[in-house]
Amino acid sequence: MLGTVLKRLAQGIFVTFCVIFISFVILRMIPGDPAKVMAPTATVEQQQAIRDSMGLEKSIPEQFKMYMVNLFHGDLGESYFKSDTVLNVMEQATPLSLILLISSVVISDHIIPDPGNHRRTKWK
């Protein structure tokens, strides 16, 4: 039993790391300059300041290391659309997301019959 739990935990950690790595690589493969996309009318100096603040001048392995360190410290970065930290944006969205989750589970439990319960539902 304990061996199975440890095996599943190790698999979960491995899959989580793979998802983080793949998403990081895919975001770095997008063509174009993120500073120009975020501030198309900014001056060259302002765009360079954006690149420096995002760490885009560093090598890809250094960027990934910085990304992982920040991630494990709970620093998910800044939301460029809301001008707030990503953690605060997620905290604001959590109550409504939980309401949506709970209501959909309750509704689906009452609408969709349980196929394993043959006494309650008769499929004829």
| Uncertain regions spanning at least 5 consecutive residues | none
Output mean pLDDT: 87
Largest beta-sheet details: 2 strands, antiparallel
Number of strands: 2
Q: Structural class of the secondary structure composition?
A: mainly alpha
Write the layout of secondary structure elements.
Elements: H1 2-29, H2 34-38, H3 44-54, H4 60-72, E1 78-79, E2 84-85, H5 86-111
Question: How would you explain this protein's 3D organization?
Answer:
The protein is mainly alpha-helical and 124 residues long. Helix content is 67%, strand content 3%. It contains 5 helices and 2 strands. It has helices spanning 2-29, 34-38, 44-54, 60-72, 86-111, and strands at 78-79, 84-85. The protein has a two-stranded antiparallel ribbon. The model has no long low-confidence stretch (mean pLDDT 87).
Task: Name its key features.
124 residues; mainly alpha; two-stranded antiparallel ribbon; 3% strand
Q: Summed up, what is this model?
A:
The protein has 124 residues and is mainly α.
